[in-house]
Amino acid sequence: MLPVIIDTELCKRDELCVHECPLMVLTVEKKGQVPVVHPKKTNYCINCGHCMAICPTGAITLSAFEGQAAEPFSKEDLPDSAAVETLIKTRRSVRKFKKKNISADEVGELIHTAAYAPSGHSAQPVSWTVLDTPEKVLELGKVVVEWMEEMVKQKNPLAEKLFLAGLVNTWKKGKDVICRDAPAVAVAWAPKLGITPQADTVIATNTLEIAAHAKGYGTCWAGYVVLAAAYSQKVLDYLGVPEGHMAHGALFLGHPAVRYRNIPPRHKSVAEEQDGKFIFRARPNTH
Ligand SMILES: Cc1cc2nc3c(=O)[nH]c(=O)nc-3n(C[C@H](O)[C@H](O)[C@H](O)COP(=O)(O)O)c2cc1C
Ligand code: SF4
């Protein structure tokens, strides 16, 4: 099946799609004709949807997304830049949650939004595992702490570097330092082999985090879960991550039990000109 279907009645022959396609999949055989998939490039299409996005008459559909028409939008549908900046700056890592669950369907809506994150070659390789109750989240914490104990026992240098012994002790005293008693967790994973699976997974996780903040949920990266997943098959098994795949992003989330009133400062780097280039250097994060 051809990757792109063009409705010949709706097509205005403006060739916008031909010029937009990053892989030059589309071509016109003769000026004024409806574009077609280049016969030698039928396998080149990466399903990025740019041809659909640019078409003013909605003449294009992708066979990989059968039945999904393009969704038109106008400039007025976009939030203004100040609103977006405020959304980004007011996101905080939330570590205190109300005793109210988030359903898998609610997290699923955020996952659908995160599917619009960019991915290398538009591979869209990210899958998610969602834990939707505090009990399931606590069980994940247990498996992570088991891995930490093992690292401490083995005197693995990472254990000392990351104060794992202290974390294990705190957990044993009943404090959930892994997922902070959150009612839900979303873990993003992808095939180990691919174009840019690790970057894609991290970007998707961050996109979900911003979408969650916009809806009033609180999230925080579950860094210890990501770390443990890289070492512990038990953690991957608990999360249902199949062989040949790796988890690179994890968030614990819920309804925030804290209210932030101020945006804390961040370093504003000043551009330094260097051989005609501008370096916005990160400052050492010291006192
Ligand atoms: C890690 C990463 C690397 C990418 N590298 C390139 C690149 O080298 N050249 C390019 O044209 N697009 C690149 N892209 C953009 C993707 O092709 C693009 O995100 C994808 O086709 C989906 O299109 P969209 O971002 O417009 O939704 C990259 C995206 C990611 C996340
Ligand atoms: S989906 Fe992307 S790669 Fe495929 S034809 Fe359209 S613009 Fe080109």
Automatic annotation (TrEMBL):
Keywords, ordered alphabetically: Iron, Iron-sulfur, Metal-binding, Oxidoreductase
GO molecular function: iron-sulfur cluster binding; metal ion binding; oxidoreductase activity
CDD domains listed in its UniProt record: nitroreductase_FeS-like
Domain 4Fe-4S ferredoxin-type: start-end pairs: 2-31, 33-65
Family statement: Belongs to the nitroreductase family.
Protein name: Nitroreductase
Origin species: Maridesulfovibrio salexigens (strain ATCC 14822 / DSM 2638 / NCIMB 8403 / VKM B-1763)
